[in-house]
Write a structure and sequence with these properties.
The protein has four helices and ten strands; from the N terminus they run E-H-H-E-E-E-E-E-E-H-E-E-E-H. By secondary structure, it is mainly beta. It has one domain: Roll (3-methyladenine DNA Glycosylase, Chain A), CATH 3.10.300.10. The structure holds a DNA duplex (12 and 12 nucleotides).
DNA sequence: GGCACGATGTGA
DNA sequence: CACATCGTGCCG
């Protein structure tokens, strides 16, 4: 059987374009009611720093984006459309605001759907994936084929950002979305 | 203080 | 295609 390893700072403190493509295939471990469940990560998107107009950090350092300026491994959560919480993993070194939006888990496609199912809300803002007892990520040795496309719902960002192929997903799953 | 607008999902 | 629903950034 393959060895399972909890991802630590050596994984998250890298450029988001190195981290994001490696997340589909990894396992999100989530504790609820004192029971830990495993979820295969199937789809993510990279948001890369203040220059990336689609990244919330393009507005600069604010109360909302503060956690993105911390070192990789923390969780960034925010509310969209007044009803959906979005789950993000902060990447890169301190002072470099980058994050990966978790867009889909196996059997839970959709960034708003997965947080609703798991019960993830603002209370997870700032949580540390490296030391948390209720949410973390493991490498179970999967290495799926990754497909890419432009990011979803960021038309307002304009070129070149709207065209960057920074959405990464397991192709097989994409076929029926 | 007030206002416009989303890194979405659902249902018609 | 319409729309629910509210925190956040920005303007004043």
């Amino acid at each position: 059987m393959s060895k399972t390893i909890r991802l630590d700072h050596s994984f998250f403190i890298r450029d988001v374009l190195d981290v994001a493509p490696e997340l589909p295939g990894k396992i999100l471990q989530f504790r609820s009611n004192n029971e830990v469940k495993s979820y295969l990560i199937t789809e993510v998107e990279a948001y890369r720093g203040e220059e990336d107009k689609a990244c919330h950090a393009s507005k600069g350092r604010t109360a909302r984006t503060e956690i993105m300026y911390h070192k990789g491994g923390h969780i960034y959560v925010y509310l969209i459309y007044g009803m959906y919480w979005m789950l993000n993993f902060v990447t890169a070194e301190e002072g470099n605001p980058q994050a990966v939006l978790i867009r889909g888990l196996e059997n839970l496609p959709g960034p708003g759907k997965l947080t609703k199912s798991l019960g993830i809300d603002k209370s997870f803002y700032g949580e540390d994936l490296v030391s948390s007892k209720r949410i973390w990520v493991e490498d179970h040795g999967n290495s799926p084929t990754i497909s890419t496309s432009a990011r979803i719902g960021i038309d307002y960002a304009g070129e070149p950002w709207v065209s960057k192929p920074w959405r990464f997903y397991i192709g097989k799953v994409e076929s029926f979305r």
